[in-house]
Design goal:
single chain; alpha/beta; Nucleotidyltransferase, domain 5; five-stranded mixed beta sheet; globular; disordered C terminus
Length: about 210
């Protein structure tokens, strides 16, 4: 897969926001139950991808209580390999985006490996890392739900893949707006900015200094 040119203006970049729901937290022993994705370019949503996935194993009741996804819902759904292959076709060479993206990619990668498929090698942006750089001092924490409320995003996460994707897409665009104030206008600058260390807790240090 060709890497997108770092000088590409952000308004010309296609971003594919992805989210997965699973039977548990370990890609080594747990399985996908749902995949959602949506592509944006220049702030316009180009399309969505949404499918339940048959995990091939019962969904733990505690997980069903959290996500609302039950064994009956995934019965007859595509197998994991087919679902991941469909996602790969959908995202093509877009920049992959997610909130704590490594969790999603760990399950997608483990599934691809088990099914003899190539893992996604796209450029990536994690909105969790971006949020920690840009708004951490203004919010109680950087959970997606907290950020959606604090920033008054149009969509709110619900532990369902596509709804979480839409909330993450809103967050991505808000954070890109903020990042432009730091001179982030091109893809390479965004990739570097997103992976740079988050700033230290300046507010706490100021409070401690004033109390000393």
């Amino acid at each position: 897969m060709e890497t997108l040119p770092p000088g590409l203006p952000l308004y010309e970049v296609t971003f594919a926001v992805v989210d997965v729901e699973t039977t548990g937290g370990s890609p080594a022993v747990d399985a996908l139950t749902e995949i959602g994705a949506a592509c944006w370019r220049g702030g316009e949503r180009l399309g969505t991808f949404d499918t339940l996935v048959d995990p091939g194993t019962p969904i733990p009741p505690v997980v069903s209580a959290l996500t609302g996804i039950t064994d009956d819902m995934v019965r007859g759904a595509p197998a994991a390999g087919a679902a991941v292959a469909g996602l790969t076709r959908f995202v093509a060479d877009a920049v992959l985006v997610g909130h704590n993206l490594r969790f999603d990619l760990s399950f997608l990668g483990a599934t691809a490996e088990r099914c003899g498929q190539d893992a996604l090698r796209n450029d990536t942006v994690d909105t969790l890392a971006l949020a920690r750089r840009l708004v951490r001092e203004d919010v109680p924490d950087c959970r997606l739900g907290t950020l959606a409320r604090a920033l008054r995003l149009d969509h709110r996460p619900s532990h369902r893949a596509l709804e979480d994707v839409l909330a993450t897409g809103d967050l991505l665009h808000r954070l890109i707006e903020l990042a432009t104030g730091f001179g982030v206008l091109h893809l390479g600058e965004l990739l570097d900015f997103a992976t740079a260390p988050a700033p230290g807790p300046r507010r706490r240090r100021k409070q401690e200094a004033s109390a000393a």
